[in-house]
Design goal:
2 copies of one chain form a homodimer. The first copy, chain A, has helices at about 40-60, 75-95, 105-110, 120-130, 140-160; strands at about 1-5, 15-20, 25-35, 65, 100, 180. Chain A is about 45% helix and about 20% strand. Chain A contains 5 helices and 6 strands, in the order βββαβαβαααβ.
């Protein structure tokens, strides 16, 4: 199973592609989509959509794992993040990818064992789990972490004998899976 | 000049196409894009993007006029509207359309003379201005109103001798133009 992880952002969106081969995780690709700040908002959203479609066409993932957007108390910030998320989800659905969303804390817990790990810890564990020579940039690292989180969730579901699509919380890998409604 | 007006919404997005031929406004088309509620959020956003691209391909507008999203105090509502707006803006920019946004109150004032007009008044004035046999549904009516508002703004700019891209407020047609940042 090939998993495309996404860390959506209004300025930069990280992506990471990971293969799950039985119990093994194999790094395929990662990067950051960062439309020029000088472009208009609409042009940036278009490029985000177009570039993500190109990533999907290049790597042909089976599923997508998206880190949930954290919406604080600012409607303005929520609108800005929502716009990026709209372009991203439209691109993922254009390829008919199944999409699972994970809270940031669950992604962190899946790769580091702690839901409060900082970005540096996530980077290091992603590097170690995927045997990378150097840690990826933060956005790409978080995206790879989302893909790893999804791979773990799938393995847990398989261990549960496919009795439930929702993996049970387990020690060290408490994963909450929420389908995009 | 052919203008595509858009009234973005999380459930339904209205569109309206109007030609400005000198001082005349000519209705071309209108409709509502309403992806099935039974589909996933991502699938709905993809269909909104795809269907809007199809509308653009069919009618080949020169510019787009988008009614501004009203963001109240709810981050959740802002996120939902932002997602629809992200898919819409990405579609408009994919066709390299110039995009101008108008506050709802300015759109209403441009077609009815009052920024506090209700939807029924907007419907009736849109019908009258475009010589339609029957009033379009609310979403499409608001989208046609945005296109009419943009046509007025262009005419005012032309009357001002092209000295400024921002039309001056005038009696009965006070228009504030805000470029998408």
């Amino acid at each position: 199973m090939r998993i495309l992880g996404i860390d959506p952002g209004s300025g930069a969106t990280g992506f990471g592609v990971v293969d799950r081969l039985g119990d093994r995780l194999v790094h395929v690709a990662h990067g950051t989509l960062r439309p020029a700040r000088s472009a208009s908002l609409a042009a940036r959203l278009h490029r985000l959509h177009r570039d993500l479609c190109a990533v999907i066409a290049q790597h042909a993932p089976d599923v997508a794992a998206v880190e949930q957007v954290f919406v604080a108390n600012s409607p303005r910030a929520a609108l800005v993040l929502g716009q990026a998320r709209g372009a991203i989800l439209a691109a993922l659905a254009s390829a008919e990818l199944g999409i699972t969303e994970y809270a940031a804390s669950h992604v962190k817990r899946a790769v580091t064992g702690s839901g409060r790990a900082d970005k540096r810890q996530v980077q290091l564990m992603v590097s170690r789990l995927l045997a990378l020579d150097s840690p990826p940039a933060h956005d790409a690292s978080d995206a790879l972490a989302a893909a790893i989180c999804h791979a773990h969730a799938g393995r847990l579901a398989a261990l549960a004998g496919g009795r439930s699509a929702r993996p049970r919380p387990t020690r060290g890998a408490r994963l909450v899976v929420r389908r995009v409604p």
